Amino acid sequence: MKFFLLIFGTLLFFTSCKNSKYSLDSNLYKNSFKGVLVIDPIKKDTLYNHNSTKYFTPASNTKIFTLYSSLHILPNKIPALKYSIQKDTLYIQGTGDPTLLHPYFKDSIAISFLKKHSNIALNTSNFKDNKYGPGWAWEDYDTYYSPEKNGLPIYGNVLTIHKGNNLIATPNYFKDSITFSNLPKRREEHTNMFYYNSASTDTITTPFITNNNVIKDLLEDILQKNITISSRLPEGDKNILYSVASDSVYKRMMHKSDNFLAEQLMLVSSGVLTDTLKFKIAKEYILETKLSNLKQKPRWVDGSGLSRYNLFTPESMVYVLHELYKNLPKERLYTLFPVVNAPKIKKEDTMQKPYLYAKSGSLGNNYCLSGYLITNSGKTVIFSFMNNHFVRSSSDIKKEMHQFFEHIRDTY
């Protein structure tokens, strides 16, 4: 009898899932491209499959691969500095750690360490990447979500400006480079000259240009001591100073879809694997070792998903999500993924119990969502739903997607 009920329930779900195609085949998706894969990880059943082996622009769903890579490569705390002491001089190298005086983390472990030394030499030769990822939009240079990458980030590589009784700039080093202006841009493209609307009371965050001199000057301003730029580090093993708990960075990256953290985590990962900070090193290591069984190898060009050059399939997303599901305690896994709330259509929707733990990804005309769905019966299913090239509003797309998710939640 129990067996019969199980078979009947399964057939009922598949039938109702097919009937639910009214939403996925609605005119909303006309002339656009969608891919969906939903699996039951315990039964190893495929519950829904549509275009799951086709390639899509994933946007910030790319951060799922960055999370997976970081969890496999990085220790429990983020490496903050590599250093070596020779005679009376402390030689330091950045590891790509994004948390040093970051507006959110405000980590100062490295600063406290550096204050103990009188003579400091900074070497930056280990950073071998470009400051921007391939395919990033050039006009985003002054937007908060597109800071430059580098080997020794500081203040999140952004200038934060707000106005109370006086104009407050963090870091204060750039205060004399701020001009009141009504121009739509917030910074000159090729110089650290910033603009702030005199009538504004908003807090704005603008990336600054990073180079050896800027990083050196910022450190000197904080430490109130001279720093030299060294072309080399002493031979031999290097010591490592650690900063914050790695999970705190992963959680911030996933919950806020923080592009800067994602990019820097891939650099930190490459620095753990080798002596070089370069996205490609960490990417190739993961694809060639931990993810060598992927049936559709992605075109993976950055850690954040800012680039439209990225191409991933729903099947690849679900594969990585399944690996995370198998290898992480559920309470830790679901903490790393943000809760996704359904679009509020009715007032009573505000009381809805969370059931989606997933990462979204948005670019113009693209919206993707991949993660874990908890059904009313207590089952967990893993899904990736990718939408590309739609010309309707993304809110319409989200409402249709959530009808599909709610159907699975209520019937499986």
TrEMBL record:
Keywords on record: Carboxypeptidase, Hydrolase, Protease
Entry keyword annotation includes Hydrolase: yes
InterPro entries membership: Beta-lactam/transpept-like (IPR012338), Peptidase_S13 (IPR000667)
GO biological-process terms attached to the record: peptidoglycan metabolic process; proteolysis
Example of a GO MF term: serine-type carboxypeptidase activity
Keyword S-adenosyl-L-methionine: no
Any single Pfam family the record assigns to this protein: Peptidase_S13
Gene3D superfamilies registered for this protein in UniProt: DD-peptidase/beta-lactamase superfamily
Highest taxon, organism lineage: Bacteria
Family stated for the protein in its record: Belongs to the peptidase S13 family.
Protein name: D-alanyl-D-alanine carboxypeptidase/D-alanyl-D-alanine-endopeptidase (Penicillin-binding protein 4)
Organism annotation: Maribacter vaceletii
